[in-house]
Amino acid sequence: MRTLSLVFFLLSLTFCRRETEEFAIQIALPSDPAHLDPLFSTDLTSQKLARFLHQGIYQAEKESFVSPWISKSKHIANPSLEIWRIEFNETSPPIVDIHFSLARLISESYPRKADYQFLKSVKIIPSSPNTTPSTNTVPLETPTSSTTAFVGTRSKATLEFHFQKGTTETEWKEKLSLPFASIIGKEEWENHNLKTYGKYKLNQWKKNEFIDLQYQKEITNDLPTSIRFRILPQSTTSLFLYRKSELDAFKLSDFLLSIPEATSEFTLTKKGRSVQYVTINQTNPCFDLHFRNALNYSIPREQIIQKLLENHADLTYGPIPLPYIEKLNLNLKKIDISYDKEKAITELKHSKCYPTILTTELEFRMRGDDENQSKGRAIKQALEEIGLKIKLKPMEKAPLYKENGEGKGDLTLLTWYSDYDSIWNFLDPLFHPDKIGNGGNRSFYQNKMIGQILGKPNRNLNDAKQVTETVTMEKPWIFLWSIQENYLVSKEFLRYSALADYL
């Protein structure tokens, strides 16, 4: 009898194991996305997931913009507008979904709306009727499992776009290739469901635990059929699961770069895609140029990069990583903000609120994880060495970004990750006077001339040079460094040749 009970027990374990969900690849994310609505893909996690889930009518490829959905486009002469007619082929999403998604760029309020002010209207040009295939969708609030991909063919359809006069073809194609202009299903969205047209669809989202994606296009060997993103705020937890073969990729914190597993074979490094900085709240009248100069001269960047970051970061010219600057040949003027304690103290003495500023406790905010706090402590020590009183305030991501967008806090340690490959990605919206707070300009920097340049429909590299030099001179940030992103990956991860591009 005891033997029979043992057999049933072992059989029950076997069946339980078979029922456990398996995923081709599991990847760690430090936090949940703020939202899966493409209009709100402003945080890093949302941007990463957008690459898997969403697709717009254009995709950036090197120096051009391509589309698998467009058969032809035509420019219509008009004295007051730039008018383009775009015909979509049979493989595209239904025209009602494309129109709905792009019209939202005009009608709704979202953080990056100022980027799409050039888009004045979009309308459907009547053509032959289209057929919409049956698909499965996933509710936004209570996601469930789904297994059917979107398939089928549709009749050709045309949209007419009205752009602000002077908007170049490159500019509007660039903007329509960003995550914010992704296509979603109209009927599903109105019923609180999410239907996407990227390579993957959402199967389930359990907040603070995991997000499950399923491949929904023609299967290839380049990408896995399924991915589970596990929400793991601490990299030490990720390392523990990686060593148990329960995780295939996670971002290495600086203090984990020397672990035995981090060999060249299993470590992927991304350079020049980010800039780390401290906002100096421009709404405080005490934080004048002399004060901002003092803060920038007080930071021993090279020493921190060498000792704390183990040389896994690059210096910047103002807000732009040097590896990115070097390929543009901008011939920027030399602006020295290197470490000089005596110069920092001199500048501080000339600031508007000196000497009262020395007895004022300045609140320095940052993310509450170990990596950000260690950087915060190094910066705090440098600022205190020139006589300032600094109070560190580690915070969770959501309230940190919310309160920073409301203008709270004196100094805030933040990181900007590029949306797309362009120097303008490091300038606009970060310094645009109309995009303050959560729109991107988190230091509340105001410069009318910069706004005029960033608002031009036909900006060029000379404009980028002028903005970069002006911002670097005026120092709305403490300019720090561009962190090198290092990911520890498994052998299973390396099987998929295209997957590294999505990290």
Automatic annotation (TrEMBL):
Subcellular location: Cell envelope
Keyword Signal attached: yes
SUPFAM superfamilies: Periplasmic binding protein-like II
Solute-binding protein family domain segment(s): 149-437
Pfam families: SBP_bac_5 (PF00496)
Keywords: Signal, Transport
Source organism superkingdom: Bacteria
Family: Belongs to the bacterial solute-binding protein 5 family.
Protein name: ABC transporter substrate-binding protein
Organism annotation: Leptospira yanagawae
